[in-house]
Model the fold of this input.
Amino acid sequence: MKTKSKLYWSVFDLPEQEINLAKLEKQAESPDLWNDPKSAQKLMKNISDLRSEIAGWKKLESRVKDTLELTELKDESMEADLEQEIKEIEILVSQKELTTLLSGKYDRGNALLTINAGAGGTDSQDWTAMLQRMYLRWAEKHNYSVQIMDINEGDEAGVKSVTISIDGLYAYGYLHAEKGVHRLVRLSPFDSNNRRHTSFSQVEVLPQVEADSDIEVSEKELKIETFRAGGAGGQNVQKNDTAVRITHIPSGIVASCQNERSQTQNKDNALKVIKARLLEIKLKEEMEELAKLRGEYQKAEWGSQIRSYVLHPYQMVKDHRTNFEVGNANSVLDGDLDGFIEAYLRSNIRFHV
Done:
């Protein structure tokens, strides 16, 4: 534990990060700060994130120091408590270690997660709803804020597609590991003969684009349509055309949002999705260009199957990229994804731009 903590403290470089924080706080003292509200908001967010990260490292450092001092006392009456404390610290150190693997440009930022039902009809739409619940539970465990930006309900049950905004430090860095096709094998609750069915859903994960990023979209390139948001009926149905659908004409990308009661908010959210998808195209092109420069071919398998969830005839969740597997499928579907994410990050050195 002592060796590991020293290694990752050197990687994080706490003194250097404190210097960086002081520089940012100095910038925030400028009387002209709020002349540019977007830049000011970004600066204040960076300060808040860095403060939180430094505080987390300092708290962990203090726990390690206190525990090491107690172990040197060799008090047998404290052994059980010390063992529990060491286990908890090792988990925290492991979590901090993961953040050292997240060095990409967008890894520290927020994520847009979209789940689309694949082949399998109602079963796949139900599977998509199960995945939606799984990621919402995972986000809740990590104290991330979430917002369902757009959802297309299934005809009989489940969800055809859903887009979720997940905000918090390293949200994109962690969730990038979930991108791909997720496969479910179970006895179908929608089959009167109780036969086993295989369902597929596609998970897309995009980094949220900052307002001042290099992804610029002109109003002239957009086709903006408004329509009445769907609902369950009665008071839930909007009487005004608050839902928004935006088409980016040059690329053909379409995004819609109907979750908010304000047309302006729905427009902003739909535009956020447009920019995220344009960024994905840009990153893909840069990856392909780098592969050419390296003299090697790298196939961008955006839709490759990454994980299988088997509920019958046995329980098993297995990631096909890392061979990491868990026998308790229910815990995974309840949001326990950290083992899969950690295995992916440790085994995969990702190209960052």
Summary: The domain at 2-100 is CATH 1.20.58.410 (Methane Monooxygenase Hydroxylase; Chain G, domain 1). The chain is about 45% helix and 20% strand. The first strand starts at residue 111 and ends at 117.
